[in-house]
Amino acid sequence: MTGKKEHRLGVSEANLVVRHLKLEPADGSRLLDAIAEIDELYGLDDISFDDRSHVLNIAYDASRLCLDGVEDVLKKHAVEVSHDWWTRFKTGYYRFVDDNVKDNAGHEPWSCHQSPPGNKRKN
User: Which domains does the chain have, with CATH numbers?
Assistant: First the structure.
């Protein structure tokens, strides 16, 4: 056993993020429908729901999927994210990090330690 986890198609380990969202109590069938639809989103790696704490645990590639896409699916099925201050604080932080991951995934890295083009010196 190598210990390396296989990810779903379209999920890069470098851009993988794990999020924990507390949800308001909702109808069980609507919640299951929302989880099933979220599970089909491209870029999602894993999803689970803890009934006791009402926490939705999701892992996704932040360069392909963002928290807003997940929340849109929850709203579509009349499932709301908790309105407490801690959940609002975490979702704001999650959005900030997701935006940074998405921006960095499309950025070509560079280094100031490279010789400029046309320089004949060895590095």
Answer: 13-101 (3.30.70.100)
- Beta-carbon contacts of 57 under 8 Å, excluding residues fewer than 6 positions away, are 18, 19, 20, 46, 47, 48, 49, 50
By C-alpha distance, which of 22, 109, 87, 25 is closest to 58?
A: 22
Q: Answer whether 0.85 is exceeded by the pTM.
A: no
Query: Which residues is 77 bridged to in the sheet?
Result: none
Reduced to 3 states, what is the DSSP secondary structure of residue 30?
helix
Least confident of 12-16, 70-74, 106-110: 106-110
User: Can you give the pLDDT at residue 122?
Assistant: 57
Sheet hosting strand 55-61, strand order edge to edge? 16-22, 55-61, 44-50
